[in-house]
UniProtKB/TrEMBL annotation:
Cofactor(s) annotated in UniProt: Mg(2+)
Family: Belongs to the FPP/GGPP synthase family.
Entry GO MF terms: all-trans-nonaprenyl-diphosphate synthase (geranylgeranyl-diphosphate specific) activity; dimethylallyltranstransferase activity; metal ion binding
Keywords: Isoprene biosynthesis, Magnesium, Metal-binding, Mitochondrion, Transferase
The encoding gene: 25493517
Organism whose genome encodes this protein: Medicago truncatula (Barrel medic)
Localization, UniProt: Mitochondrion
Biological process, per Gene Ontology: embryo development ending in seed dormancy; isoprenoid biosynthetic process; ubiquinone biosynthetic process
GO CC term (a single one): chloroplast
The EC number(s) this enzyme carries: 2.5.1.85
The protein's name in its UniProt record: Geranylgeranyl pyrophosphate synthase
């Protein structure tokens, strides 16, 4: 990163470059978490097991953006144990215990995320995800819905095992937020479709809530003050909003190969995202089209011309 962005460091050590690659810092832990996730989705019924493990198999793991952020947040917030021991609801907590509890947050977060992808693809009738057939496309809607439910159940059990009621409520509430964001997206009036405020609120629920609340959970487990926990939340919220904004831009600029799914899927589903809202500010005549909606394919083409 430093060479690409011409950032000058006061130290010339190559370690600085390594430290600036966020993935290399947590690469070993990410592969450990990957294995843990595969273990966690083992189910009694073979059909359920094969459905649930579908997106945890090697090679279809996605970017692992959320676990990466959460592990880096853990490194940033874990205080030296002798100075500030984390709250010990479980009795003697060591540094290793703390880190493995935070790894569990990363696992739970990824499970909730994958469950939401499974359900989302059913709702959107999507046929590709992570560069392969979506689970609903390969095994049908029914199994995809049930596999998502199963992952949520596994995530709840893992969450409860942390025995921290504040953390349980934070992440349990995220599931409601995911549903809220999805419903806000499905049911828009023409005014809401044109509103940046509505878009940002929906984006918080749909994408940023999971990242912000799991970042806050990391801070709580680290034994940080309520003030720091709020800062961790704000960091995760802004990162999540930025992540979705970029995801929305990529839907217009990416290719099926780079996205692992078809491009232009938002506008084709009638979903108005940030690039259109920004274009509307520059070209006020676009507003009438957005208000009318994108059921008419002609409107899709008109909007694309403005972008
Ligand atoms: C059952 C938990 C649950 C939710 C039901 C369907 C639904 C309600 C919510 C959908 C939420 C959703 C899919 C939001 C989009 C979030 C998003 C940016 C997904 C893409 O994330 P990436 O790019 O994907 O990190 P990878 O594949 O890399 O993990």
């Amino acid at each position: 990163y430093s060479s690409r962005y011409h950032i000058h460091h006061h130290t010339s050590s190559s370690l600085v470059e390594d430290e600036l690659d966020p993935f290399s810092l947590v690469a070993d832990e990410l592969s450990f978490i990957g294995n843990k996730l595969r273990e966690m989705v083992v189910a009694k019924v073979p059909k359920l097991a094969s459905a649930a493990e579908y997106f945890f198999k090697m090679g279809v793991e996605g970017k692992r953006f959320r676990p990466t952020v959460l592990l880096l947040m853990s490194t940033a917030l874990n205080l030296p144990i002798p100075k500030a021991p984390p709250p010990m609801e479980l009795g003697g907590t060591t540094t290793t215990d703390l880190r493995s509890r935070q790894q569990r947050i990363a696992e739970i977060t990824e499970m909730i995320h994958v469950a939401s992808l499974l359900h989302d693809d059913v709702l959107d009738d999507a046929d590709t995800r992570r560069g392969i057939g979506s689970l609903n496309f390969v095994m049908g809607n029914k199994l995809a819905v049930l596999a998502g439910d199963f992952l949520l159940s596994r995530a709840c059990v893992a969450l409860a095992s942390l025995k921290n009621t504040e953390v349980v409520s934070l992440l349990a509430e995220v599931v409601e937020h995911l549903v809220t964001g999805e419903i806000m997206q499905m049911t828009t009036t023409s005014d809401q479709r044109c509103s940046m405020e509505y878009y940002m609120e929906k984006t918080y629920y749909k994408t940023a809530s999971l990242i912000s609340n799991s970042c806050k959970a990391i801070a709580i487990l680290a034994g940080q003050t309520a003030e720091v926990a709020v800062l961790a939340f704000e960091y995760g919220k802004n990162l999540g909003l930025a992540f979705q904004l970029i995801d929305d831009v990529l839907d217009f600029t990416g290719t099926s190969a780079s996205l692992g799914k078809g491009s232009l899927s938002d506008i084709q589903h009638g979903i108005v995202t940030a690039p259109i809202l920004f274009a509307m500010e520059e070209f006020p005549q676009l507003r009438a089209i957005v208000e009318e909606g994108f059921e008419n394919p002609e409107n899709v083409n008109i909007a694309l011309d403005y972008l």
